[in-house]
Inverse folding.
């Protein structure tokens, strides 16, 4: 009985230590992000990697998400003879919920995993130690650029996702199923407010922060919670993607309940 | 200049360093030899300030580095060069960018001054023409030379070499050791080389320290170690599997290498 309690205690203490370490990492990341010096060229590189190179995947997922919404929405609304509300339905679903969440999940899978792997490999090949021993701060080179870039790119990608998705919804609802453009977009303008759009943008800012925090943390601590070597990097990458995705969905619920 | 006093370090019950004592004078180049996994790299990481001892002191120019504030530790690291076993080159940068990195980040030199120094340093280590190559395109010896150039470009007072010849063929190993010797003459840094390259390294260093069972069992000149009657030292230098040292040891460090690597995070 006592041994069982000891095991639970040990596991509990380990979890609390891990949370604490994540918290300290978060605090340091924020502190170094808001104080100079900033590495402008590294931030731009990360913006190019997270933002520009994600455009194609965001375009495709946005388009097909909008098209599916248009199709399903039209069929569902036609049961209540309310096809005219397809525009607001697609618009509100995308800008308030699907846009921020799906964009965040795509960025996690594409860019987040790569960031974790890159930092993890730097950890196991002692490149991070080399930066430290040069008297430089590894956070400013590895963590801060990703954090700032993610918070710039994820809202912008969300906006692109929403736009392409709305167009995708019109392609199906309007061109394929016969709903007029005037009705689709006219009703959307009436029912989708600027506040709805901003709600989605605030969410995407939060998600960008979560993705960069978790993915850089997992990469930075490769070898600590995972093995060293290639297996350690792959474990860190998997954990980063899973944890980021789950946190995005959980935090989405809390944000939605607060905003409503 | 560097004084290690009664250094102790344990990793979860494994007592790796058990009272290490030695000192290195300014401008000296010494070798630390010993069996694999017996704490040589751990000792080097303590001197670099990457690990903190459980007991004992590491005094560099009169200051105990365990007690240095964050700012003073950064200032100390500005005087330090560390050649990692793997080289630790930044793999997203070319050789030129790697060697220029410390100058770009830590000095106000103009780009053409940086270029001049980088090209000169690469020539000194025999890497002229390799400026635009990435680390993945380099051989093991070239990686070590590029890493050496990156460390020496800011004229460190102290240089630490963590197994600089491991994994290299005998000819390249000799080249690297000769390069270290010529750089030592050029810059007159205080250097510590952790190595298995015995007896080759004896010809380039001023003193040799042998680490065994967590303690320094010999500290003296290369001639003295070659003449030592200590059977452990003789067996190690000759590479003889028969003797007081077991053929396959159970070094304390290797018993839980993950815990040792974890300590470097702190």
């Amino acid at each position: 009985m006592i041994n069982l309690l000891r095991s639970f205690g040990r596991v509990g203490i380990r979890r609390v230590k891990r949370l604490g370490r994540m918290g300290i990492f978060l605090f340091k990341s924020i502190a170094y992000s808001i104080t100079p010096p900033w590495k402008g060229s590294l931030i731009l590189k990360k913006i190019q990697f997270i933002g520009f190179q994600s455009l194609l995947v965001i375009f495709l997922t946005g388009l097909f998400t909008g098209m599916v919404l248009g199709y399903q929405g039209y069929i569902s609304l036609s049961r209540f003879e309310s096809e005219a509300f397809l525009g607001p339905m697609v618009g509100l679903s995308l800008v308030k919920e699907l846009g921020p969440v799906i964009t965040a999940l795509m960025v996690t899978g594409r860019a987040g995993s790569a960031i974790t792997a890159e930092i993890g490999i730097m950890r196991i090949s002692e490149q991070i130690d080399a930066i430290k021993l040069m008297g430089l701060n590894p956070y400013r080179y590895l963590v801060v650029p990703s954090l700032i870039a993610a918070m710039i790119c994820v809202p912008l990608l969300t906006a692109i996702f929403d736009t392409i998705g709305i167009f995708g919804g019109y392609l199906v609802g309007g061109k394929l199923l016969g709903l007029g453009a005037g009705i689709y977009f006219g009703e959307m303008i009436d029912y989708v407010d600027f506040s709805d759009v901003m709600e989605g943008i605030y969410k995407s800012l939060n998600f960008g922060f979560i993705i960069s925090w978790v993915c850089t943390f997992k990469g930075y601590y490769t070898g600590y919670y995972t093995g060293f070597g290639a297996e350690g990097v792959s474990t860190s990458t998997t954990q980063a993607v899973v944890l980021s995705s789950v946190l995005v969905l959980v935090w989405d619920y809390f944000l939605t309940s607060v905003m409503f | 200049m560097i004084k290690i006093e009664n250094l102790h370090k344990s990793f979860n019950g494994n007592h790796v360093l058990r009272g290490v004592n030695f000192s290195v004078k300014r401008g000296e180049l010494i070798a630390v030899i010993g069996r694999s996994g017996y704490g040589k790299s751990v000792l080097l990481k303590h001197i670099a300030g990457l690990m903190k001892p459980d007991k004992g002191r590491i005094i560099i120019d009169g200051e105990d580095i365990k007690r240095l504030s964050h700012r003073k530790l950064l200032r100390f690291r500005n005087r330090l060069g560390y050649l990692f076993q793997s080289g630790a080159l930044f793999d997203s940068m070319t050789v030129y960018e790697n060697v220029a990195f410390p100058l770009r980040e830590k000095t106000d030199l103009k780009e053409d001054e940086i270029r001049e120094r980088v090209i000169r340093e690469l020539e000194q280590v025999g890497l002229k023409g390799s400026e635009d190559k990435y680390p993945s395109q380099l051989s093991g010896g070239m990686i070590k030379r590029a890493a050496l150039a990156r460390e020496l470009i800011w004229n460190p007072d102290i240089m630490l070499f963590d197994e600089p010849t491991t994994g290299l063929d005998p000819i390249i190993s000799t080249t690297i050791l000769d390069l270290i010797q010529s750089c030592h003459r050029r810059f007159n840094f205080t250097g510590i080389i952790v190595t298995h390259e015995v007896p080759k390294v004896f010809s380039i260093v001023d003193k040799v320290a042998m680490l065994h069972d967590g303690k320094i069992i010999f500290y003296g000149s290369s001639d003295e170690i070659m003449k030592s009657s200590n059977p452990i030292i003789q067996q190690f230098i000759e590479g003889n599997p028969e003797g007081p040292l077991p053929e396959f040891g159970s070094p304390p460090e290797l018993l839980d290498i993950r815990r040792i690597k974890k300590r470097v995070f702190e």
Notes: The mean pLDDT of chain A is 93. DSSP finds nine helices and no strands in chain A.
